[in-house]
Amino acid sequence: MSKLLGDMPPLTTLIDGVEMTSEIVVRLVTIAYWQSHIAYTELMDNVVPRLHPLKRGFPLRVAERMDGDLVFEKGFAADLSNLIASLEAEIEAGTHVYWHGDEYHCRGGYEEVFREPGVDDFRRAVSELVVLHEAVVASTCAVRSMRDAGKLMSF
Hints:
This protein is mainly alpha-helical. It has five helices and two strands. Helix 2 packs antiparallel against helix 5, helix 3 packs across helix 4 and helix 4 runs antiparallel to helix 5.
């Protein structure tokens, strides 16, 4: 998914080996709803205002679903993945790596990274959106696994 999370472990690593009880599933769903409010705020405060007006439609539709607690609706995770990908493209377009020549440096210089204004806001928002995506997918998978395991055990 995103390379912007750095050393933060994915949610699957954090819940690996945990017995999947209904209490744990409820906690996962709670985390997803909680994270949707955090991601919504990041999106509306720091991303949408910086986007060109023609590029605001899709992020606003995704934000509406977050604000309406519709994060478990069909297709939301796919839309969220697409939004993350489009924001990562914006980040890449606004990030420039260049060579800074320095005659006194042992290699003759070093690489510098310049980020255009607003790119760091996009990076923070993408990080929150990735956490939301993981929470939604983990919750959905946990609910489905409990449902399907119950069906299989009734045979």
